[in-house]
What we know:
Blueprint: E1 3-6, H1 8-24, H2 26-45, E2 52-54, E3 57-61, E4 67-74, E5 77-85, H3 91-95
Parallel strand pairs: 1-5
Antiparallel strand pairs: 2-3, 3-4, 4-5
Helix pairs in contact: 1-2
Amino acid sequence: MVNLSILPLAQGDIQALVDYYDAISPKLTDLFLSELDRAFEAIVDYPEAYQKRYKEVRVIFLKRFSLGVYYKLYGKKAVVLGVLHTSQHPEIWKKRTQ
């Protein structure tokens, strides 16, 4: 089990997604946030269970959305670097690892 923190840029990703889904349907936003919470819980409970995507950056994909939660482990701490659509260019989250 690890502690989870979210970078401000990743918080911005989440807010942008909430705004987007809210414009479509508040129920969709609720579904997204529920899926995101499950992903965060999975990271906390099983931090090393998910594949490394770039160097030490790992990713867990949401089940109902084409989104990945990119994170990096630092001992007993997991840091969320971004929550990004799978079609987005990987340079976005790679820059956040430096």
